[in-house]
Amino acid sequence: MKEKGSHWADAIAERIIHTKGEKDRYVCASGITPSGTVHIGNFREIISVDLVVRALREKGKQVRFIYSWDDYDVFRKVPANMPNKEMLEGYLRKPIVVTPDPYGKEESYARKNEKEVESVLPVVGIFPEYIYQAQQYGGSVYAEYMKTALDKKGIIIGILNKHRSEPLPETWWPVSVFCGNCQKDTTRITSYDEAYTIGYECSSCNHSETLDIRKANNVKLFWRIDWPMRWKFEQVDFEPAGKEHHSSGGSFDTARVIAGEVYDYDPPVTFKYDFISIKGQGGKISSSLGNVLSLSDVLEIYQPEVVRYLFAGTRPDTEFAVSFDLDVIKIYEDYDRCERVYFEAETVSEKKKEKEKRIYELSQVNSVPGSFPLQVPFRHLCNLLQINNGNIDDCMASLDAGEGDVYDRLRTRAVCAWNWITTYAPDTFRFSLRPPDAEAIPLDSSQKEAVSALRKELASSFDSFDEKSLSEFFYTIAGNNDMDPKELYKTLYRVLIGKEMGPRLAAFILTIGKERIISLLEPY
Description:
This protein is mainly alpha-helical.
């Protein structure tokens, strides 16, 4: 097997093997609390793990890729982008898993957010094994690990206090309880018998009781203990985290110590990933603030391979913005260039070639195409779609795209292009051809002569023109009619699309086709 090591994911895979030694199976983990829309910033962790998982598997390793839904966390804040806020506010301080779906479709608020992700990840080729923490805690799966934390409470307090301005009181415990009466986490532990029984009382409803943690379904560890506990339970070898978790004294700092001193487990290999912003907005994307952009939103504009390319082509510790402006065209062009380099249709240095080829491999949803796919530049596709008034079937028919995977990829790109045109493209980029029966644009005599000359030449010699020769012919027409070439361009744009500027004119006319262009120029 060819060794692959030109990409950061390959380097991480090597580090995992070196650090954890040869194993029958490596466990790579990710996860999140489904407290709101899982946004594209959260997706960065998911795909970062997926890229490392792929790198490990390509080295011949068995890998378990787990994704934990922390759906037994407390519902702390109603996100700004959610409906039925008043109803949701009634569930604050209760588990997310018991909070109703504000859209009334799923069994819970948590499940609604989970399904949105689970349904779309296969589109980009990501297939983790999901673990639902409400089920784990509800089934008392972690009872022994909670007892360990309770028994080693003093050690945990000592670890956490090293990073706190005010020390935790001796009355603090590493577990929290959702009240058996009102379901809120407004409880405090009142007793522990150093076996499995704890007592608690609730400040919201004054309820109190004792519980056996081997049977109770409403007790859980606090996050900073829960995380290292699950490393031990799942035998996690690799898990990245955002830079806020990797800050000095942050949750990863404390988790790695708790993993060793409380659970006798070496922490996983990790790295920190940076934030993602939306072009023009800046700042960290936040579910609670409502400025969210989901993976589904991004897939409306970027085909799956290009979404993967955005992340595979960027180091995880680099902040970047997801663009929906004209940068979309450049990103597609960059991906197409990467594809040409892979299939040696474009020549670059050996170092650049190695890098681009690995990025292209990791950008694929499934396997790399067996041969160089038909490439239709995004800009050209946008023009073709607008020429066909957004009719994707007509557009695809004109491209002679064949069938199978090549056709499917190109059709997906066409759908994304039309979504971008109708939703985000600037007005200067949008156009529609004037109907042939539309009232003629008023022109002076020299303008009419110039348009008429072009029509006659295209009628007789359309198939002999390419973009370069047609562009040169524009200058001939302008000279023959004492016109500034810029004036001729404006005139032709007005005649064709009712604007004074538009797509590159020669290529545009050739794309429109002989019959339609003659019809459009006929009134002149």
